[in-house]
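Intended use. Records like the one below are meant for learning the mapping from a protein sequence to its folded structure. Do not use them to infer anything beyond what is encoded.
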Amino acid sequence: MIAGHFGFAAVVKSRETAVPLWALMLGTVWLDVVFVPLFLAGVETIDTSPGGGYGGNIIHADYTHSLLGALLLSALWGAAFYWRLGLRSACALGFVAFSHWLLDLPVHRADMPLLPGNFGNLPMLGLGLWQYRGVVAVLEFALVVLGAWLYWRAARSITEPAQPLRRRALLTSVLMLLGGIGVLLMDLTGA
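Structure written out for the chain above:
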């Protein structure tokens, strides 16, 4: 679902132009970035059993992808930018980081706990759309196209004196579209 996450970052960038695109893109995968050291430490795991879903693997991210863990990590991501970019941008970045959890909810099988480490053994969340690869691919493609289109539309509205900036923003929207489609194709083929 990486392509869909990046597409959502482009949607937000089209509305929050003061927020750096790199911070939005990295923010959309912030939960996965934090997953890596926890995985290397053996705290969170990957099960490579058959039938894992979209990528074929089952990821046990009971801390980074728990509801409370995602909220805390997202708040931390947004707070990291508060002093440099201000409250509005920090809130946008925190929301984009939390969008990762929201976008994962429909596709993950019921493996997303409410509390870190599944404390209290509460019901796990997830609607399991990953078992329907075509549906997920269409949803991700739609997010990528929507993000690239909204970013392109916002770039078109840049006024004449900033023409080089406008050209760069239009090129960025095309690269977002092509990159998003490329990531989606890699996800689908297992590359």
